[in-house]
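Journal club prep — side note

Before the paper discussion, L.F. wants everyone to see what a predicted structure for a comparable chain looks like in token form. Sequence:
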Amino acid sequence: MQIIDRPSDADAAASVHDRRKMVLVVEDDATLNRLLVRQLAQAGYAARGVLRWKDAQKILGEEEPAVALLDMRLPDANGLDMVPHLKDVCPVVVLTAYGAIEHAVKALRAGATDYLVKPVRGEELELAIGRALERASLQRDGLFWKDRVQSIEGAGRMIGASAAFRRATDLVAMVAPTDQTVLVLGESGVGKELFARAIHDASTRADSKFVAIDCSTLQANLFESELFGHERGSFTGADRRKEGLVEVADGGTVFLDEIGEVSATIQAKLLRILETGMFRRLGGTKDLRADVRFVAATNRNLQEMVRGGTFRADLYYRLSRFVVDVPPLRERGEDIITIAESFVYGRAFRRNVPKRLGSEAKKALLAYHWPGNVRELKNVVERAVLLSGDAETIGVAELGLSPTPRSAESKSFRLEFDAPPTLEEIERVYLTRLAARTDLSRADMAAILGISERNTYRLLAKHKLR
């Protein structure tokens, strides 16, 4: 394989984002090839040039260009015939010495994004490459921007003035402007994703995408495909290449919720991308670069998992360089009413009915322990708004809270056996006790057990409990 030119480190763009924008120049005129590569390098791209299609295929087997500049007539191939194959990898700009209209039409119909006639001026070249990148970005981002608008419309706001809440938000303000990986810790329902989004919104990546993935809801192979993407034929049903979320979130933030649930295989791949910024699609052989910031979250004790051998120590140390502890709602006493009133207003506004919390309802909210945290508070308030009908004041009855949930925490919790039990027996009896409580949802049980809802469901199914 004959490589005409490769830009030096000095010629490459300064940022990681620019360096990964590799342009592949497939042009059989060696002089023109070298000129194009230099022009692109000066514009901040990591251009590579080859003289033949077979050489281009070798590079495509190793790397994935952001754009391909393809000559219409090559010694070993017809450029137009290669466009349909190449356009599935990256945008294609066709080069030709013949400026006939029919050639341009054929190139665009074949899937090219643009068409340049030799000799190519530097301004024309940069404009064509820029248009190709912008078009690819718009196509790739459309659904995610739509999703972001919907998520913003339905998302809650971070509300609070308590000392515990301010300590957490101060940490967010401190780490957000950096590109540091962040680990957000907290019980189920405290709003860890809101804190992750706040980190993104206050960062230099705020204008790019925030992509969240729930690590607890996907099997290992599906999770790998979602995060890293997959190549065509990598598994049954993979009939086309699919970009992963780390590619879709280019320049933005990837939020890994419930990081403690990922398998050992995925942990190793996450460690690699965190340390090197490199990854491979499922079934792929090419190293790709990710320009994303990672924020992870969990309600599990990762240190205990490291000691137990179920979570990689090196991944934990890489994730925990900066930790934000989100306080449980029970430690944010003065915030409970403020948050509840915001939920009342939001629900009442949509129903066009003025509502307010009665004084006794406020006392009940403050007396409750909130094992499900803000998520539980939201559900309780929205249910109360509905149950209160046309009444302007929400009372205690509409809240439907257990009268003494806080005092219940101080009661002893005993498991008694006639003989020394096995771990299996302890597990079964403990789960049976929890499942018998009508005031606990599956989310509440998961919070008490310190595991994910998915694992809670598995344990209940294992012991045939409902």
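L.F.'s comment for the group: Residues 1-19, 146-155, 404-411 have pLDDT under 50 and may be disordered. Keep this in mind when we get to the figures.
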